[in-house]
Amino acid sequence: MYAIGNLLWIILGGFVIFLVYLFGSIVLIITVVGIPFGIQTLKLSVLALLPFGKDVRQGERAGGCLYLIMNVIWLLFAGIEIAVVHVVLALLFAITIIGIPFAAQHIKLAYLALVPFGNDIIDKA
Q1: Phi, psi for residue 123 in degrees, rounded to 5
Q2: What pLDDT does 62 receive?
Q3: What pLDDT was estimated at residue 63?
Q4: Helices (DSSP H) in 1-125: which residue ranges?
Q5: What average pLDDT does the structure give for the chain?
Q6: pLDDT digits (tens, 9 = 90+) for 54-98
Q7: Which residues does 56 contact at the CB level (< 8 Å), separation at least 6?
Q8: What b/e string do you get for 66-103 counting C-beta neighbours within 10 Å, with b at 16 or more?
Q9: Inside any domain, residue 125
Q10: Is residue 75 part of a domain?
Protein backbone atom coordinates (compact mmCIF):
# COMPACT_ATOMS: atom_id res chain seq x y z
CA MET A 1 0.00 0.00 0.00
CA TYR A 2 2.89 2.34 0.77
CA ALA A 3 4.27 1.78 -2.73
CA ILE A 4 1.02 2.91 -4.34
CA GLY A 5 0.88 5.97 -2.08
CA ASN A 6 4.47 6.88 -2.88
CA LEU A 7 3.91 6.43 -6.62
CA LEU A 8 0.85 8.69 -6.54
CA TRP A 9 2.76 11.15 -4.36
CA ILE A 10 5.56 11.39 -6.93
CA ILE A 11 3.06 11.88 -9.76
CA LEU A 12 1.10 14.55 -7.87
CA GLY A 13 4.10 16.79 -7.25
CA GLY A 14 6.27 15.02 -4.70
CA PHE A 15 9.14 14.77 -7.15
CA VAL A 16 9.13 18.55 -7.63
CA ILE A 17 9.25 19.07 -3.85
CA PHE A 18 12.13 16.58 -3.68
CA LEU A 19 14.06 18.45 -6.37
CA VAL A 20 13.55 21.81 -4.64
CA TYR A 21 14.81 20.42 -1.33
CA LEU A 22 17.73 18.71 -3.06
CA PHE A 23 18.73 21.92 -4.85
CA GLY A 24 18.51 23.88 -1.59
CA SER A 25 20.58 21.25 0.14
CA ILE A 26 23.31 21.40 -2.49
CA VAL A 27 23.43 25.20 -2.25
CA LEU A 28 23.69 25.06 1.54
CA ILE A 29 26.33 22.34 1.55
CA ILE A 30 28.53 24.35 -0.84
CA THR A 31 28.96 26.93 1.91
CA VAL A 32 30.89 25.84 4.96
CA VAL A 33 28.51 27.55 7.39
CA GLY A 34 25.46 25.97 5.78
CA ILE A 35 26.59 22.33 5.98
CA PRO A 36 24.49 21.41 9.06
CA PHE A 37 21.44 23.07 7.50
CA GLY A 38 22.13 21.37 4.17
CA ILE A 39 22.15 17.99 5.89
CA GLN A 40 18.76 18.74 7.44
CA THR A 41 17.43 19.79 4.05
CA LEU A 42 18.66 16.45 2.69
CA LYS A 43 16.61 14.82 5.43
CA LEU A 44 13.59 16.78 4.20
CA SER A 45 14.26 15.79 0.60
CA VAL A 46 14.37 12.08 1.46
CA LEU A 47 11.04 12.36 3.24
CA ALA A 48 9.60 14.48 0.42
CA LEU A 49 10.43 11.82 -2.17
CA LEU A 50 8.89 8.81 -0.42
CA PRO A 51 6.81 9.92 2.61
CA PHE A 52 4.46 6.94 2.87
CA GLY A 53 5.80 4.29 5.21
CA LYS A 54 8.03 6.74 7.07
CA ASP A 55 7.53 8.45 10.40
CA VAL A 56 9.22 11.41 12.08
CA ARG A 57 10.29 10.80 15.68
CA GLN A 58 12.30 12.77 18.16
CA GLY A 59 15.77 11.29 18.31
CA GLU A 60 17.64 10.25 21.43
CA ARG A 61 20.04 13.15 21.07
CA ALA A 62 17.30 15.80 20.64
CA GLY A 63 17.57 17.30 24.11
CA GLY A 64 20.85 19.12 23.61
CA CYS A 65 21.36 22.84 23.72
CA LEU A 66 23.01 22.83 20.28
CA TYR A 67 19.90 21.32 18.68
CA LEU A 68 17.75 23.99 20.28
CA ILE A 69 19.98 26.79 18.98
CA MET A 70 20.14 25.27 15.49
CA ASN A 71 16.35 24.79 15.41
CA VAL A 72 15.81 28.44 16.39
CA ILE A 73 18.17 29.63 13.64
CA TRP A 74 16.46 27.28 11.16
CA LEU A 75 13.02 28.46 12.27
CA LEU A 76 13.88 32.13 11.85
CA PHE A 77 15.47 31.83 8.41
CA ALA A 78 13.58 29.05 6.64
CA GLY A 79 11.39 26.87 8.83
CA ILE A 80 8.29 29.02 9.06
CA GLU A 81 8.10 29.66 5.32
CA ILE A 82 8.57 26.01 4.40
CA ALA A 83 6.04 24.86 7.01
CA VAL A 84 3.44 27.37 5.77
CA VAL A 85 3.84 26.07 2.21
CA HIS A 86 3.29 22.50 3.40
CA VAL A 87 0.25 23.49 5.49
CA VAL A 88 -1.30 25.31 2.50
CA LEU A 89 -0.67 22.27 0.30
CA ALA A 90 -2.18 20.05 3.02
CA LEU A 91 -5.30 22.21 3.09
CA LEU A 92 -5.59 22.01 -0.69
CA PHE A 93 -5.24 18.22 -0.66
CA ALA A 94 -7.70 17.89 2.25
CA ILE A 95 -10.51 19.36 0.16
CA THR A 96 -11.16 15.95 -1.36
CA ILE A 97 -11.47 12.65 0.46
CA ILE A 98 -8.90 11.06 -1.84
CA GLY A 99 -6.38 13.78 -0.99
CA ILE A 100 -6.53 13.33 2.80
CA PRO A 101 -3.59 10.85 2.96
CA PHE A 102 -1.51 13.32 0.95
CA ALA A 103 -2.53 16.12 3.29
CA ALA A 104 -1.32 14.02 6.22
CA GLN A 105 2.08 13.64 4.52
CA HIS A 106 2.33 17.41 4.03
CA ILE A 107 1.57 17.91 7.73
CA LYS A 108 4.40 15.46 8.53
CA LEU A 109 6.72 17.47 6.26
CA ALA A 110 5.57 20.73 7.88
CA TYR A 111 6.50 19.40 11.32
CA LEU A 112 9.93 18.34 10.11
CA ALA A 113 10.36 21.69 8.36
CA LEU A 114 9.76 23.51 11.63
CA VAL A 115 12.22 21.57 13.80
CA PRO A 116 14.52 19.31 11.74
CA PHE A 117 17.42 19.14 14.21
CA GLY A 118 17.09 16.25 16.61
CA ASN A 119 14.32 14.49 14.67
CA ASP A 120 14.85 11.23 12.86
CA ILE A 121 13.02 9.65 9.94
CA ILE A 122 12.24 6.03 10.65
CA ASP A 123 10.44 3.29 8.75
CA LYS A 124 7.04 2.28 10.05
CA ALA A 125 6.97 -1.28 11.24
Answers
A1: -80, 140
A2: 60
A3: 65
A4: 2-9, 15-30, 35-49, 65-74, 80-93, 100-114
A5: 88
A6: 888 887 766 677 888 888 898 998 889 989 999 999 999 999 998
A7: 47, 108, 111, 112, 119, 120, 121, 122
A8: ebeebbeebbeebbeebbebbbebbeebbeeeebebbb
A9: no
A10: yes
Neighbouring residues of 80: CB distance < 8 A, sequence distance ≥ 6 = 114
* Total of domains in the chain: 1
Contact indicator for 26, 36 with CB cutoff of 8 Å: no
- Taking residues 8-36, what's their average pLDDT? 90
Which residues, including other chains, have CB under 8 Å from residue 37's CB and lie 6 or more apart? 28, 70, 73, 74, 78
* Distances 125 to 15, 51, 54, 67 between C-alpha atoms, Å: 25, 14, 9, 27
25 in a domain, yes or no? yes
Chain centroid, CA 39 distance in Å:
12
Query: What CA–CA distances, in Å, run from 26 to 22, 47, 78, 98?
Result: 6, 16, 15, 34
Domain assignment of residue 105, given as a range:
2-120
Domain contains 10: yes
Are 30 and 3 a contacting pair, CB within 8 Å? no
